Amino acid sequence: MKINTPEVSVLMTVFNGEKYILQSINSIIKQTYKNWELVIINDKSTDGTLKIIKSIKEKRINLINLKKNVGRTKALNIGLQNCKGTYVAIQDSDDLSISSRLKNQVDILRKDKKLALVFSWYKAIDKFGKVKRTFNDNISEFELNYKLPVKNLICHSSVMYRKSFILKLGGYPKDFIFSQEYILWLKILVKYKIKLIKSFLVFYRLHEMQLSNSQYQQKYIFVENLKILFWSIKNSLINKYNFFLLVRMYSINTLRLIKNFFLN
Known about the structure:
Elements: E1 8-14, H1 21-29, E2 36-42, H2 49-55, E3 61-65, H3 72-82, E4 87-90, E5 96-97, H4 101-111, E6 115-125, E7 131-135, H5 141-147, E8 160-162, H6 163-168, H7 180-191, E9 193-205, H8 215-234, H9 243-263
Parallel strand pairs: 1-2, 1-4, 2-3, 6-9
Antiparallel strand pairs: 4-8, 5-9, 6-7, 6-8
């Protein structure tokens, strides 16, 4: 009997995500597009996450339960290596996808073989699912090319990419803890095409457990962004169109760090 290979792998990493993971998984199960697998990397959760995942009776779920906590970047790369699909869609364990998300993104990637990555508009929701902000910038391809090296405009959970292209780039850069997806987007931008889908396809969760909350983590992210800046300059992503945007952004972030340092 021939086993069908999924066209799409949905990649989800999770650490102590018991509060939202069931909702997140169900939003994938309810997709109108059916030829998918859900690859879940459980990064040694210590809460009820594993029990919840195992309680779901869905054959298309491929659970990889790590014996030790390895961190988000390594977990993403482990997941990427285990994805069977031509395309990989990201679904963070606390976020949600609308039912037509996968179909919408697959259709676009099928039509343009040069496209490496598509991403979409999204809505930010709180822990109760109430919409707090919407992200629907009407940016053109040209604007994306000069704005992305200045600021990460891409929501990780809104992304679907062509797996073969990402593997050629080495996956998620191993020396980044917080900004691993951002530097990956820039590496894609240098070599391939990225397209914004101007539709709301995902809900991004705002809550107290997000990685970027603490001031220490904000400082670490700032250091990683400096590394990204030097990399962007080296690879000619900084130009006359985005130079002043860049100066403004780093000036604001530097002043914020100084303020936090003296107030704490």
